[in-house]
Amino acid sequence: xxxxxxxxxxxxxxxxxxxxxxxxxxxxxxxxxxxxxxxxxxxxxxxxxxxxxxxxxxxxxxxxxxxxxxxxxxxxxxxxxxxxxxxxxxxxxxxxxxxxxxxxxxxxxxxxxxxxxxxxxxxxxxxxxxxxxxxxxxxxxxxxxxxxxxxxxxxxxxxxxxxxxxxxxxxxxxxxxxxxxxxxxxxxxxxxxxxxxxxxxxxxxxxxxxxxxxxxxxxxxxxxxxxxxxxxxxxxxxxxxxxxxxxxxxxxxxxxxxxxxxxxxxxxxxxxxxxxxxxxxxxxxxxxxxxxxxxxxxxxxx
Length: 302
Fold this sequence. Notes:
Layout: H1 2-14, H2 18-40, H3 49-57, H4 88-94, E1 147-157, E2 162-167, E3 172-174, E4 179-186, E5 192-197, E6 201-205, E7 208-211, E8 216-222, E9 229-235, E10 241-255, H5 256-281
Antiparallel strand pairs: 1-2, 1-10, 3-4, 4-5, 5-8, 6-9, 7-8, 9-10
């Protein structure tokens, strides 16, 4: 053991570390002495936990109930108020009082009696002599689309014309047994009716023919006294002929739903007219001859 310590000392000297070794030895000796000295000093007295808690409670406000009965409650000095009752201003705004009508100063002589015949009140006036109230008539509702056009025309042989009401698009005139005209509709302005004519008819009158006057494939009639009538003549192979007169009376713009309601009635009237014409002439129905032309482009909208 002594040999080991001696060799360690020689090594420290050779490496010049012996001051460090001396300091370590001194420290090993001094530290226990210092610690022992500090432990021998009596510790400072610490306040009990109760004192600390009481010191923390002192920072809070302490409320002590007054158990004395010398003074009664002072809540009676305040007015009673329902917290759920709305304010008067709110009630007056929600339920405004009606303004009384001014009383009429005029009163008939003789104690205010009214002429005989009922209670004396006239139509459109109030019973209490207040402001006169006149009932306003209800405005009719505007019809809703889509719309279509119908016409009223007077057509037939010269001197034997008949009025045809509510002629719809593609209806034939005068009847199905003898179709001479087909109503195609009206123009975009809504004031001119367009008819497709049979090739056997020759036109001469106030209307406008297209493509030209000699070949009147489309006949245009306006709601004008100077342009609403057309004379048509039917020429057969033997040279005999029949003259017809077509007059435009009115153009109606009606909803399509209204046309559907009167379709059955119009069809029944057309069949009755065809039977009547067939009985009178005792001949089979004639076919409608469509004109063949490259310029058949009528400008109709309905």
